[in-house]
Every structure is written in C-alpha cells, then in structure tokens.
Amino acid sequence: MRVNVDGTEIEVPEGTTLLEAARAAGRQIPTLCFDERLKPFGSCRVCLVGVEGRERPVASCTTHCADGMRIDTQDATARRVAGAIVELLLSELPDPPEPGTELAEVAAGLGVTTTRFDGERHARDHDTRHPYLAFRHELCISCGRCVRACDEIQGAFALTATGRGFEANVTAGLDSGFLQSDCVSCGACADTCPTGAIIETSLLPAASPAEDRA
Fold first, then answer.
1. Along the chain (214 residues), what's the average pLDDT of each consecutive run of 10 residues?
2. What dihedral angle (degrees, nearest 10) is formed by the CA atoms of 148, 108, 79, 69?
3. What angle do CA 99, 20, 18 make, to 5 degrees?
4. 87 with 116, same domain?
5. Looking at the structure, do residues 145 and 116 belong to the same domain, yes or no?
C-alpha cells in the first residue's frame, strides 16, 4: 500500500503503523511510552499526528496505515496537545528533566522549556536497596515501559504499576524494593526508562539526597 507522509509518498506493507511509516519516510515523531522492543502501548499520547479526513489527531504508535492515507506529523493540534502533555509531566517533577534523557529530548523537540502548570511536585524518594539498580520515584512518569520490559523481555514480572493520577508510580515486589522481588538484575527496566527514574547505581550522582531509603 502507498501512504503520504508530510508530502512524501512511500510504500509500506500491511500492518505498518503510522509511526513506522513516518520513520521510513525520514520523519521523527516524539514518543515517551514507545520502545520498539515492546508491544505498542499508546498511553502517553505524545506521538499524536494528523490524518487527512480524521477529526482529531491519532496515536501514531497504535494506528495502522491504510492505502492512500495522508499523514501530517506537524499537525498543529497534535503538536499543541503533545506539548501540553509534556508540560503537565514536567509540572510534577522536582527538577527539570536530566540532560540526555528521552524526556529532555522530547521536551526540546516540542519546544517545551518550562511549564505553565503550577501544582504539587513529587518529593524526592530514592530506593537504593538493590546493589545494582536504584529507583528515583520522583522521576517516574508512569509510561509503563519498565513494567512491560520486565514482563515482555525478561519474563520476570518483578515490577507493578501502582496508584492513579498524581499518585501513580511503580513498585518492585510488595514495595520491598528490587532486592526482595523477583528481579534478576537484567537491567532492562533501566535501559528503557525515558527519565532516568530507574538507573544503575553506578550512574547515580555522588551526593545522595537525604530521601534515600536505606
């Protein structure tokens, strides 16, 4: 089938998502909950694009191409919504996203340098009970990638999503930390995390905050 991405005609096989088509056409679409090693989840809504004939933008990671479809990766509404979503995420963090993280790159790509939303921010809460992995809970944006990586890549099922809204987060085991969970120290969760919420302990800043859990 043939689709048009930002004016470029390309041919794609059946079952291709809009995100895959855009990348094949050399176009970049911001994502946060997406990891090509995992099944598409479509929860963050940052990868929205416009499609001719559709009233509203659609999630490019879970929407499949149709023959003759015209895709607009720079759709004004899609970009505005994605930018607002990132602003909301930043409004809950105690500090700006760390340089080099996917969240920082996505924010920069959408032109988001600050947030208009002034609300409650997460307190620093570092779980350093595991010898190799640390969880900085205040940086978690509940994208679900770590949970899915643990399940789909490793099959350890050591992580669980908890809470809703502002209280949403991830826990290992029965909130006993990685060390007492079914974690096998594969590092898949840290490798996929877009914010650095889960990180190798060797990469932690030298000065640990008082909020670290012993």
1. 98 98 97 97 96 97 98 98 98 95 98 93 92 94 96 93 94 72 91 97 68 53
2. -70
3. 105
4. yes
5. no
